[in-house]
Design goal:
Layout lengths: L21 E2 L12 H4 L2 E2 L14 E2 L5 E2 L10
Antiparallel strand pairs: 1-2, 3-4
């Protein structure tokens, strides 16, 4: 279900206002993420987890070479 009034939610997304205790969830891949551009705004009560560590990390500027020092690193 795409947001109402948005033809292509991944490429054409106008500014919106988000109410308090609501969140705009952003995926890590602009063209291949099902995030708030696709599903809409998420209410705080629907969020059940918290990111704590980096699972995997790759250097986009160095042929996707793994950044082993970041694997399992705590998020700041």
């Amino acid at each position: 279900m795409a947001l109402a009034g948005v033809e292509n939610p991944k490429r054409s997304f106008a500014p919106i206002k988000i109410s308090e205790r609501s969140y705009f969830m952003m995926g890590d891949n602009r063209d291949n993420s099902k995030d708030s551009r696709f599903y809409g705004i998420v209410e705080r009560e629907q969020i059940v987890g918290e990111a704590k560590r980096v699972l995997l990390s790759f250097d986009l500027n160095n042929w996707l070479k793994p950044r082993l020092s970041r694997f399992g690193e705590a998020l700041q």
